[in-house]
Design brief:
Distance between the termini: 66 Å
Strand content: 25-35%
Mean pLDDT: 82
CATH topology of the largest domain: Rossmann fold
Radius of gyration: 20 Å
Largest sheet: 7 strands, mixed, barrel
Low-confidence stretches: 3-20, 144-154
Structural class: alpha+beta
CATH architecture of the largest domain: 3-Layer(aba) Sandwich
Order of helices and strands: HEHEEEEEHHEEEEEEE
Strand order of the largest sheet: 7-8-9-10-11-12-13
Number of helices: 4
Number of domains: 2
CATH class of the largest domain: Alpha Beta
Number of strands: 13
Length: about 240
């Protein structure tokens, strides 16, 4: 009897430990194409993946992006996310899988399901439902950097190095969880939302879901258009 209790305790301990593994990672790499689909960012699934991971608190990058210097060349300080399709006759089912540098599964969601027949609706809906589980997971990076970076978010980021009278200068107005970027019209061009890193924002407009990242002292807007990664320099006055 004691033997069975010991084995059961061991399994419970291992399960509890596994639930915390995601919190050991800050960086996540997102592919530009999933194996069950033909074409980069088909049905915008890769954009949806990166957007949700960033909103949850990860620092997410596409596999073809240049990583910030602090991410370093160590492959094993990153997670690699994938989306897999489960076979089903009556529904579209997608699961989100996180693997480490040794291709070992660290975490896998239950399948998000959609019964819509049109793939352009069903795939995004199923993926969003799978992400619902990750929002409930309560991800929080455990490393020391998170406290420092979160504290630094209380002050405004540094503006782009350009005169305020530049024709394409955008002005940042605070909104809950971020800023709205206003041109000289004035018109809201873009809304950007804070992450755990002061130099990394998610970005949204009527036509764009992407990210605004500071690289080499310049703010860069990155998003997918027609399945191709687009990078645009922004002049922002905070």
């Amino acid at each position: 009897m004691k033997k069975y209790i010991l084995i059961l305790s061991l399994f419970i301990s291992l399960a509890a430990s596994a639930q915390k593994v995601l919190n050991d990672y800050k960086y996540v790499i997102v592919p530009v194409r999933y194996d069950f689909l033909q074409g980069d960012n088909k049905f915008r699934l890769n954009t949806i993946t990166k957007f949700n991971l960033t909103k949850i608190g990860f620092l997410a990058f596409y596999e073809n992006e240049n990583l910030p210097q602090e991410a370093g060349g160590d492959r094993c300080n990153k997670l690699f996310v994938d989306v897999e399709k489960e076979n089903s006759l009556l529904a579209t089912k997608l699961v989100i899988v996180f693997k480490d540098c040794n291709n070992k599964v660290v975490y896998k969601t239950e399948a998000g399901k959609s019964t819509v027949k049109e793939y352009e609706v069903a795939y995004p809906e199923a993926l969003e439902k799978a992400f619902g589980q990750l929002y409930n997971y309560g991800y929080k990076y455990k490393g020391p950097a998170i406290a420092t970076n979160t504290a630094s978010m209380s002050t405004a980021p540094k503006s782009s190095a350009a005169p305020e009278d530049a024709a394409d200068m955008l002005f940042a107005q605070p909104i809950p969880n971020g800023y709205q970027l206003i041109d000289k019209t004035p018109k809201v061009v873009l809304k950007i939302f804070k992450t755990s890193q002061p130099d990394y924002f998610t970005a949204q407009s009527e036509t764009i879901n992407g990210a605004v990242i500071k690289k080499n002292g310049e703010w860069i807007l990155e998003y997918y258009k027609d399945e191709k990664l687009v990078s645009e320099k922004l002049l922002i006055k905070f």
